[in-house]
Amino acid sequence: MSDLLKMTATEARNSLLKKEISSVELLNAYQNAMEKTEALNNYVTPTLDAAKQMAVNADKAYAQGNAGPLAGLPIGVKDLFCTKDIETTACSAILKGFLPSYESTVTSNIWHSGGVMLGKLNCDEFAMGSSNETSIFGPAVNPWSKIDGIDLSSGGSSGGSASSVAAGSALMSLGTDTGGSIRQPAAFCGVVGLKPTYGRCSRWGIVAFASSLDQAGPFTRTVEDSALIFSVMAGHDPKDSTSASLGYTNFSEAVKSNIEGLRIGIPAEYNVDGMDIEISDLWKKGRAWLEQAGAKIVDINLPHTKYALPCYYIIAPAEASSNLARYDGIRYGKRIEAETLDAMYEATRADGFGEEVQRRILIGTYALSAGYYDAYYLKAQQVRRLIKEDFEKAFNDVDVILTPTTPTPAFPLGAEVSDPITMYLNDVFTVPANLAGLPGISVPAGLSNQGLPLGLQLLAPPFEEGRLFSVANAIEKQAEFLLAPARAAGDLQ
Amino acid sequence: MSILVSGRTGDWEIVIGMEVHAQVVSNSKLFSGSSAVFGASPNNHVSLVDAAMPGMLPVINGQCVKQAVLTGLGLNAKINKFSVFDRKNYFYADLPQGYQISQFKHPIVGEGEVQIELSDGNIHKVGIERLHLEQDAGKSLHDQHPSKSYIDLNRSGVALMEIVSKPEMHSAEQAAAYIKKLRSILRYLGTCDGNMEEGSLRADVNVSVRKPGEALGTRTETKNLNSVRFIMQAIEFEVHRQIELIEDGGEVIQETRLFDTATGMTRTMRGKEDAHDYRYFPDPDLLPLTFDDAFIEELKDGMPELPDEIKNRMVNEYGLSSYDANVLIEERETALFYELASDGRDRKITANWMSVELFGALNKAGIELAQSPVKPKQLGGLVDLISDGSISGKIAKEVFSAMFETGKDAKVIVEERGLKQVSDESAIISMIDEVLAANLDKVDEYRGGKEKLFGFFVGQVMKASKGQANPGMVNQLLKQKLDI
Amino acid sequence: MSVDKNVVKKISRLARIHVSEERSEMLSSDLGNILNWIEQLEEVNTDGVEPLSGVNEHPLAWRDDTVTDGDITDKVLKNAPEKAGEFFVVPKVIE
Fold this sequence. Notes:
Helix content of chain C: 25-40%
Number of strands of chain C: 2
Number of strands of chain B: 16
Number of helices of chain B: 15
Oligomer: heterotrimer
Shape of chain C: flat
Largest sheet of chain C: 2 strands, antiparallel
Number of helices of chain C: 3
Shape of chain B: elongated
Radius of gyration of chain B: 30 Å
CATH class of the domain at 5-43 in chain C: Mainly Alpha
Largest sheet of chain B: 9 strands, mixed
């Protein structure tokens, strides 16, 4: 059984094609793994009945020779994607019991390619958080060892998506990334996390947090797997006006391409105060690996990096304050009854939204309100342009940028919840890519002194995900990272 | 030119501006594919986008963009090739997203101008400040339950154009002329059906008063007026309320007011002590709306003629009076009917027959021009028979009635009923001879100087011809006979 | 720094989130700290910089004007906490 869990998606796909294994067998292994790892609190709504039917269908498709590229591969979905007739809550009390009558474009693409849906995965409430602790279901737990007997955070917001792939209870999973919500938990859990270019994957049917920043992306155990599932997720969707009209690309080819001669930028400004020494050591290692692989290292500057976080913490809450206005207790979700309409709104939203979500709605409301708009929102938009221009300039000289994914490894649960700003600082390296709309990938590249995974981040110009895969693959090869969390369902490598 | 109202303390000048909401004529909604048609069962013309389900996104309807640009062209306005959709944030039960997608800083249409004609024939220009596209809200029903309101989202997301005038009207009459003219332009363009009763066209009216030459006074905004009469009533009420208030030592408060259609009065909107703060910001689900000059040119080329142009032609080329032209251009259908009916024949006679006989008959029958049993070409056919002397004006009225009843062509009726005018000289002379022979005494009296009798002879000849004799010829020939 | 409690009251009212007296205290310092931290943006010279609201560079695509949606009343109403017939229901609104 555990041999099945060891397979990467690409390997499982090949074995399925050769009929060495069946989709149903693979699903059974994962179902077993889901049970074993229940304590990690990754799945908020398992969908095993649906999964069984999908696995049976996949096996039929293999028998008939018309299996899609993901046929039979067990995949978990962040509970931010609307899934038809399956409870979708964004891990918020306000959406408890919500049954969409529609399926998000990205998940539709996955199921049409034969993917098998294991269930909905835990995340921070409305994707607002960096530790998965704002989830109404409680935090998803990092499968790597505890520190001082305390569970570690999986990171967030897509904590369940990262943790399940690391723990072997999902072969691959879907997440979303607004300020680092894929790359940070991927780094914390030791898996590959890709945030595509803004506009690459449709946002239709994904519960919105900050519309100009949100992007869906995959969690996988290898770069090759990332390219496999990303090729299916990506694509133009006429239902999303911000989706780019680009045709289908198979990114699996890009993984193998040589990186010799590629110019890798090292931004000086990412040497931030408070960065763990082991993180900066890893960054140096990454630089050396790429040099060995024939790439050229170039020192670059991204002068406005420092301002990306405060800029983000205006723009994202501002958009969120408006995006979350629809949760008003009238058409779906929770309602707290009251005498008047306004009292009903106020009670419903005070009760239905958690503390961090309320905090961000209020910050966003403030930033947009009369008298503050210019000083906060408009200013942040101007700084956003400067950040984007920093990257544009840098990409005149380099092909890919290499940075650490996070300033620290995973922290214990409860460590940072009390101070919002400390929590926000987790996103310091990931937020700029969202503001500039760039693709970014986090690759597990080493372990901290305490044996926790650390990730390196690669950034590329818009729609150059292929380049990310090539370089990420080079890092993966040299890092020889061993995915061996203490609390995995079985041996994963 | 300013119109003054006198109060106890002297004269007052009225300043009026209007924000008109016009529903765009389109099949589907501004940002979703559900039907924009009025009158479905509750929540039926509603998509998941209109109901603001989580994760739903807006996609713009190109037709609504065209309609807005077309309207801008019709208002002689600046068309903005770059415009931006913003979110206007507020909570209301029939606003599912918690925001209305509208245009704030960068509207699709900028400054323009509308010409209005006042009852004294004077032309007055009213500036247009801007026109922008936005979503309509749903509908709250408050009378279905004692403690509940019911929500129907069928209107939610229907495309509206908000047309904002400059504060350049100075009387209720001007305001009425403005809304009528605007409605007429929209209907000519086919961009809004102008149906005020159904709410396709409704106005918010800003009114203030000031002493001539002084700075603008504080204005009030009276919302949602859906008839020309209500607009005039609301303005008149507000003007007198404000003047009295100020003259009594009070102050006008800038506020939103509601119009009570039963009493003709306006009143303060209750509650709402917290000022609105709409927190406009660019909708991140949409990109800026852009198009090129070629797009505008194409719309310009396909633009129908507007009432001002048509009137110009009617007065200057066809020789119609301004009054007649106004009657004919009020509705596009009427103008088109007239153009067709009068094409290639006497324009004035046709205008006359259309506005007197045809409109009279339609009115009496209670039907619209579109349902007229007499079609444009048929009316033209009747005018032809009058012009070439085939029938007299009097007979023509009889023919017209028959046409209206039967839908037959004038020629057919004339033939069937033998109504053709007699213009045969010898036939008329023989009729005249008979009449004179039968009234020799009167002939003597006439010749003896009693010239008034001429009319009697004409009448007798016409009677003998059953009205069909050409009256001009009868006159002429009779004179020749009698004046020997 | 803390945000004036009246401001907290105003924005929580705008956002339609009930905030109790004691939470208002906490929020005013929370929000104050965050805004204080955000104010480092003031250091950036943004004179003449055009605000950026989104990164897309393609033009806005237009839909054809055809009716492709709607007529799904059951789906629209399915999740409603309260409904009557084909209507959503809310506490009475007085204008």
